[in-house]
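In line with agreed milestones, the collection of sequences with tokenised folds has grown. A representative record is reproduced below.
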Amino acid sequence: MLIDRAVIFVRSGKGGDGCVSLRREKYVPKGGPDGGDGGRGGDVVIAGDRGLSTLVLLTQRPHRRAGHGQPGMGRSKHGADGDDCIVPVPLGTLVFDRDTGDLLADITEVGQRFVAAAGGRGGFGNEHFKSATNQTPREATPGEPAVDRELRLELKLIADVGLIGMPNAGKSTWLRAVSRANPKVASYPFTTITPHLGIAELPAASGGERRLVIADIPGLIEGAAGGAGLGHDFLRHVERTRVLLHVLDVQPDDGSDPVKNYEVVRRELFEHSVELAEKPEVVLFNKVDLVPAGERAELVRRLSGRLGLGTDDAAVLTSGATGEGVRDALEAAWRELGHADAPGWRNATQ
């Protein structure tokens, strides 16, 4: 299951205290102060990690602490700095301050780092306080205290392609047909209640391979943009996809109108975000294996006309159950991504 939210508690390291020390050596009268500075406290750093796809590790270990700086010592020795605490998160993670709700960081790149809690500075040793009027200062400053922070993390999937549609449109079956993903499939709505990721591979003319990261977004219902059916959560994941594959059941079991189902999903996308509704879209006339071969052309002609699809619009007849049209749908999605310069491109040697 995809864990896409977590609350964590972070604490930076305390700065080490400065040292009060006076130099005491043979033949060196009035040696003066030689107290070193305290070390810096460690930072808590949130870093993007391509190898992660869920926030589950943070729910299991929600408390993260950096190391404290060590106190200064005599002979002008500075204390050691505290160790940083690195918190790896999946790409697409949003970091919020739980108290204020402010967005602090949007982790989208490998190695991107955000200092969630900065370590305290080390205190000054007494050698800093020597002056013409005070040759043997006996004062030092303490290190800065640790910083405690409560953070809310939310994961927005980053995928090339998002599968959208009404519940029970056949998205999960379709994803299983094209990728290594294994989402639960059943003949009732809302089987998918969390997004699934799959990788589809296409051969390339150069001898390499093309890969598409595909997200199966849970079915959208009317009112999703207003929060119905966990709509806000589901639409949040669609925002990070680049191309939409709109899976349309051509013969719904509940007798609903495929065109009206399409319009419901499109309306929810638009009400959530105009930018979301304007993403490139490929319409998949799914479950065509249930339609007699002699009736398919007329069915598609009728649906295309009612949907207002022209010859330049991307629409594919497909079936997740039989694999029919799957390759054509992936090629259509790839064309929308912009061919080999799309983020999903991988050479055979990579």
Notes: The chain is about 20% helix and 25% strand.
